Amino acid sequence: MEREPSVDTLRNIHSETVLRGPCPGRSSAEGAGDRSRSGGGVGLLGAGCGKTQVALLERAPTYCERVFGDDHPDTLTTRNNLAAAYQSAGRFAEAIALYERTFTDSERGLGADHPHSAMYRELLISARNRLRRRS
């Protein structure tokens, strides 16, 4: 059985995903974080989203939800980054479910007119469109 990561490990994963995005070096449409915040560097998650990176990202939203709550901006960002990683890995059903939850929680916590809510709505629409084109 796999040991639960320490709070410090989860905090580092959270920091990396919020600051660098899920897969540094990829475009937003492919599931990357905002390169302007990352300086184009490669952090904890490496240059792409492999199984190990996705596995680490899967733990970060749980940490954020526990510490910050479901609709806190850091929780939303971390959950969105996991959805982007799923999308990048071709796991569209999981990505869309997380995008939907992120969008719903963002509307509730930040408001429907907040720029982040609009961004999460667009990412959800984009993921749905990409899934339709693949089908």
Structure keywords:
single chain; 135 residues; mainly alpha; Serine Threonine Protein Phosphatase 5, Tetratricopeptide repeat
Task: Tell me what you see in this structure.
The protein is flat and about 40 Å long. With 135 residues, it is mostly helical. It has 6 helices and no strands. It has one domain (7-134): Tetratricopeptide repeat domain (Serine Threonine Protein Phosphatase 5, Tetratricopeptide repeat), CATH 1.25.40.10. Residues 24-47 have low confidence and may be disordered. The longest helix has 20 residues, at 115-134. The chain has helices at 7-20, 35-38, 51-68, 73-88, 92-110, 115-134.
How many structural domains does the protein architecture include?
1
**SSE string:** HHHHHH
The CATH architecture category equals Alpha Horseshoe
- Give the full name of the CATH homologous superfamily: Tetratricopeptide repeat domain
For the CA atoms, what is the radius of gyration?
14 Å
Total strands: 0
What quaternary form is this?
A: single chain
Beta-strand content bin: under 5%
The biggest beta sheet reads: none
- Structural class, by secondary structure, is mainly alpha
Task: Give a short synopsis of this structure.
With 135 residues, the protein is mainly alpha-helical. Helices cover 67% and strands 0% of the residues.
Show the helix and strand layout.
Layout: H1 7-20, H2 35-38, H3 51-68, H4 73-88, H5 92-110, H6 115-134
Helix pairs in contact: 1-3, 3-4, 4-5, 5-6
